[in-house]
Amino acid sequence: VGFSKTGIAALLIALAGIAPARAQDTRIFQFALQNGMQVVVVPDHRAPIVTQMLWYRVGSVDDPPGLSGMAHFFEHMMFRGTPTMPSDQFAQTVARNGGEDNAFTTHDYTCFYEQIAKDRLRLVMGLDADRMVNLDLSDANVNTERAVVLEERRMRTDNDPQSLMREQMDAALQLSHPYGRPVIGWPEEIRHIGRLEARDFYLHHYAPNNAILVVAGDVTAEEVRTDAESAYGKVPARTLVPRAEFAQPPRLGETRLAVTRPDVKVPVFTRIYRVVSYTGAKPGEAEALEVLAQLMGGDATSLFYKELVVKRRLASDAGAAYSGYARDSGEFDVYAVPRPGVRLDVLEQAVDAIIKAYTVAPPGTADLERAKTQLVADATYQRDSQYSLASAYGQALVIGLTADDVEEWPQRIRAVTGEAVQQAAIHDLIKREAVTGILTPAPGQHP
Amino acid sequence: MKRWLISLVVLLAFGSTAQAVEVKSLAAPKGEQVWFVEDHTLPMIAMTVALPAGSAYDPAAKPGLAAFTASLLDEGAGKLNSTQFQTALSNRAIRLSATPDRDWLIISIVTLTDNAKDAFQLLGLALSHPRFDAEAINRVRAQMLSGLAQEDEDPATVAAKGFSRAYFHDHPYAHPVNGTPQSVAAIGAGDLKGFAATHWVRDNVRIAVSGDVDEKTLAGLLASAFGGLPARPAPQLPAVGRVGQPGVQVIPMPVPQPTAIFGLPGLMRNDPDFIPAYVANYILGGGGFSSRLMGEVREKRGLTYDVDTSLQDYRKAGVVVGQVATRANGMRQTLDVIRQTFADYAADGPTDKELADAKTYLTGSFPLAFSSNVGIVGQLNAFQRVGLPVGYVDKRNSLIDAVTVDDVKRVAKRLFDPAKLTIVIGGSLEAARAQAAPLPGADKPVAASAPPRSTDPHPAAPNAGKPVTPKPLAVPGKTVPHKP
Predict the structure, then answer these.
(1) Which of A66, A356, B51, B484 is buried most deeply by CB count within 10 Å?
(2) Are B473 and A87 within 8 A, CB to CB?
(3) Neighbouring residues of A343: CB distance < 8 A, sequence distance ≥ 6
(4) Does the model's ipTM exceed the 0.85 cut?
């Protein structure tokens, strides 16, 4: 799901200069239902469409011990029917009404969404309220869906050496925090998920007071309030078990992971730094990491690309990215794919030299401005998609940020100084807080 | 010079609401087709352009030439070398990509209104004065070779290339869009310049624009982007002859989950039964969780995470293509279930309810494609590429509503004969290998239908920066992105 990078934003500033004919008020509205469900309304009147997203504060960090993958598995179970909408009638009903629907799970949250004509908003709210409490968790459903999830794991992870590598590096990066467990789960533990465990998970996490409803689209706040009250308002709140606060003790040394496999055709160098996230950052710190990632490896004008790919011809591709939308630590990734004949240790030294350069001096003004321009424009482009627009608010609120954080994001990016970027490189890109991964083909595989 | 003028306006009404999308057709000086939606809500403009310069125009000995040429579109033009050109784009946050498919080179540009003039001028420079510097050629070649090697890690890509090769025989649709290591290594500056000169022409260009711009301004922008292209006619594609190789072919790979690409003859876009066939395919395998195949293979038996079929409408061929992945010892059963589902459907057709549900989904979800600038230009350009008139936008839903049970029965019987299935599996499974003798050429390097490579020299990292997030539950990217 493609919103790893930017926070999106209200475009009051950007909108000021455009023709008034169809320019719209971009104010959002927030309120809560009596049962504790939070509601956010994001007007977008361009088409008579709505996007409803329901963000539950439950993710794979909440998987019970020995049952990794439970949160993701449960996301699947939410499509397996209720007494009034048995079997696959949820998806069938949405489709029959011209809607699209889907869901996804991360370490921190689980999100369900529908996009549909605005006069069907009430319908999909009713469907989501129904499956919040009335799910049919029969043995047959659980057993079939477990097989489906194991196939999903094979497709996404086991079939893909880069994905397997990533899973192992995340496990190595986290000393004990559940961010080190794969969201989809370890296969042996997925196999241990049964009906009773699923039932228990449902009762503890699926409740209106554990959810944030985001509705973007051609609606008013009052319409959403009325419909949400009649659909979700009747679902009683539950007593929630407080989420565990997991420690993230400092790492005392760098970890290296060297993997050689016959299914690898191209060697890859990767490093993941455990860094601060938006929720743990000092003001401006996460934004400085965004700018640093853009400067270092965000596009073909970045230093990685210009030095490693164009000038020194060590790599065919190289890049960097910051993932800061998390309740606990964030991640800063760098990667490079060597050109044939280039040794990975040579490539790694060149990567390290560039990273070090950012700790020695602030970036040049032109480069800094370009990186900020790119990030701020992302916020506008993201607003073009109702799904991205709703996601920006949902993914911020569900990890404990506010709507203001979303809307002020472009200004905060604009305020990042070269010195702040340098400080972020110094304080966050520390090797003992990183795992370095070397993925290579088995001998004889690579020309 | 003749002006770019509005010649036709079509309203796409959204059900009973007062809202509608106005699609305007501009008359262009050299026969270019331009469709345009004006919307000033956001300070941005999106454009999708198709040039008849896809991989089917590759010379037989040089597969990958169209893709290679496309990859160099943003690698320097006029006085700007590659880095200078990239910097000019990046300074203004202009998003430019060039993606070849089999028939077309598809160019997408997204820009802030403030930078529109520069964006269209830079595109014009790239199209009319590409440099093809040696440095850029060698760098892009290395990227393509690395990409081809990575394609060999992915069983779905390997199977898809094998399918195209098996299905299309000697037609240029058979070869891989991104070429082979041998062909990419052999392509030189002369080939690239020659391909651009021959295929990046004004004839037959299809242009869709949406966003914060008025007609007059747009006319100027379009002239700056396309005015410098030569007006000579675009070359023609050869007709497709023999298609299909019914049976099962296995391309061995060391993966735990083999992936099958299966297909059989479909319909040309101009076939009078195309829309009934589209509805028929939705019911069989195009409808995500609503489809028969998803119900039989995933929901009832837990054999896969995803199974789907789609109607591919190339300019010279129509083909139904499906995909499924399952554990090694589940593939035989999975293919049996798929064949049986095809056979039952061909024999009995749809139920009244299946057809009614298909129609309300297909018509009801159509406006979703028109909810963003990027979505609008993608959808409109998809219509343009298959040669539909602008009025189709408004007529499309009534064509779907007119489809009857008898129509779907007729096309289901005509299309979905399991005996015609060409099946290619990427992966290693004893069970599948035993199902049929391997097809000739099963062990040779296989071809085509790989996801086309963008000219963006900086694709998403191998998982870098992405949360380790199982993506949405259903129907990954392979399904048709646009509605017919």
Answers:
(1) B51
(2) no
(3) none
(4) yes
